[in-house]
Amino acid sequence: MPKVVCNSSPLIHLSKAGRLNLLREFFQEILVPEEVLVESVENSCGAEDAKEIEKADWIHPIAIENMDLKMALKLTLDEGEAAAIVLALEQKADLVLMDDYDGRAMAKEYNLKVIGTIGILLKAKLEGKTISLRNDLDLLRKNGFWLSEELYLKFITEANEAQ
To answer: Which residues face 97 on adjacent strands?
Structure first.
């Protein structure tokens, strides 16, 4: 199984959509920096999605070591994204799960492979683990995930063409 580090956004949005289990199905375990657990669980004021994340014994928080790199990354990224990139580098991760454009761009600068929430849902559709990508994307949007109409249609078309 690949070593996977995750930022808070995929955890939160997949949980809100009732699809957090996909991460376990695809990767068996997920590594997160402690900062991501704070963002995903402790700062959520007891929301149901946060409870699901907290109960997931296959999500493993790890303290990062390179605080200097984290501080440098925080000049352009938020706390969780910076910490996720540092952890991915320290753990020699095969994959980073992250949605934020700037965070993804920075991860790629460090030669990290990145996929986001929509990529996970597209993978689920292509592997027959979900019936309707459209329904999953609609649920994401309903729960606050921003996705342009152009990208929404692109992913629907891509999923339909791959079948």
So the answer is: 6, 115
pLDDT tens, residue order, the chain (163 aa): 899 999 999 999 999 999 999 999 999 999 999 999 888 887 666 677 788 998 999 999 999 999 999 999 999 999 999 999 999 999 999 999 999 999 999 999 999 999 999 999 999 998 999 888 889 999 999 988 988 899 888 888 877 766 5
Nearest to 133 by CA among 1, 22, 6: 22
**C-alpha–C-alpha distance, residues 101 and 107, integer Å:** 10
Q: How far apart are CA 91 and CA 106, in angstroms?
A: 17
Query: At CB < 8 A and 24+ separation, what contacts does 23-28 make?
Result: 23/58, 23/59, 23/97, 23/120, 24/56, 24/58, 25/129, 26/120, 26/123, 27/1, 27/2, 27/95, 28/1, 28/58
The rounded distance, in Å, linking the Cα atoms of 142 and 108 is: 29
Q: Are 94 and 113 in contact (CB under 8 A)?
A: yes
